[in-house]
Specification:
By secondary structure, the protein is α+β, with helices and mostly antiparallel strands. Helices cover 45% and strands 13% of the residues. The structure holds adenosine monophosphate and magnesium ion.
Length: 494
Amino acid sequence: MNAPAPQFFAFDNTYVRDLEEFYVRWKPTPSSKPVLIRLNDDLARELGADPVALASPEGIEALAGNRLPEGAEPIAQAYAGHQFGGFSPQLGDGRALLLGEVIDRNGERRDIAFKGSGRTPFSRNGDGKCALGPALREYIISEAMHALGIPTTRSLAVVATGDMVRRDRALPGAVLTRVAASHVRVGTFEFFANNQGPEHVKRLADYVIARHYPQLADSAQPYLDLLTAVAERQAELVARWLGVGFIHGVMNTDNMTLSGETIDYGPCAFMETYSPGTVFSSIDSAGRYAYGKQAGIARWNLARLAETLLSLIDSDADRAIKLATAAIDAFPEQHAAHWLRVFRAKLGIDETGDAEADRQLIDDFLLTLKHNRLDFTVAFRALFDAAAGNAARLQTLLAEATDFTDWQSRWQARQSERPSELLAAMQRANPAYIPRNHQVEAALDAAVEDNNLQPFERLLAVIQSPFDERAADAEYCEPAPTEFTTTYMTFCGT
Ligand code: AMP
Ligand code: MG
């Protein structure tokens, strides 16, 4: 009697097919009164889906988890993870479900997954739900990261469920549809290394190589090379985070992907005043995941990945440890090279100079920002303005900085002329707009408390075009009032 399930996506689900035992088949919990809050039309088209169909009542039912689209094979993935340094042997998708995979218009395989779709066998004490505010927060920040050119999971849709979620008070619930290169995490490897053994780890590693690192398929040392390749992507990813002042906030191993995409926008935030110790997360009182600690943590997480791969790397345990250690020890240098590339672009200087001298030049500017308590984004954007012929903003910012005049002449001497490509690259390295914490909170407040999505839509439009400054959007360049930033806290698992 049932009408055939609507087809929104051309699913092709390799994880389900190839990795039996790595997940539990599960169904989303239906939503009582789904309302579409936001649909990412461009992303839908990129995935080969029709945004009009997705916004139809049937589409909304699908995005709310009420009616499975044809070809979806929802699963909760198993994973473990080191959280704040301690091992949790069983985490898994406690409030998420992987619906399936599609090949996008660029030929890339992408996961389509729900977050907030109800309890699963991995929910432990959680309710499996997501409140509307955090779903919108992930939408904004992930789309901002994408617009900034940083590898990230994307957000396809947010549907309000019509059900309340109990937190410190009752809040409207939502389902976020997330799109990722894959959801395989360091914690996925840890789960199978800990609970099953090398055969399972090998199957997972082979899957990851085929999906994300096909060039390694014929390598003589595929698992060692996999470790090095994952490290390389993380080295670059964290360098790019640092370049925009991004603080992930909860870099547990279950929140680090093998694909090299940023994932799990929980307590993340963008730094305002430059200070490497900046932390916003309420649960990170020790500052483990502070802005300036992120590269070291990425390396620590990669060491946890390495441990799961040891027996695949070499049957001789000592040799395996030696090889894996060498791969992990290469991380700081990999990262430093990416960091230098990112910050050279921010200073608008080419790649030909002496690396040590350039690093010093960058560090000295950062030190000036720190001493003068300057906003990271504003100050670097002012550098770009100066390079583009408008030095007024930089002069005003640094009028009272005693160490600045000398720095500026060193900077000018280092790159006396900028070809247009270098200036364009400098612009792309120095956004005018980031999702400022006070703006994000105001947008979420209006959406959740007043049912007013206008500030959310406006902020989204601003951050989707971060590099061209627009007079009408001037307020979005402004740092938060100091009182806001000094007390700002972000929350995890909300
Ligand atoms: P996160 O902090 O979001 O990275 O999540 C860490 C772990 O807790 C994952 O296994 C999540 O699935 C689980 N988790 C977080 N929030 C909930 C929730 N509300 N209900 C069930 N599980 C959750
Ligand atoms: Mg997580």
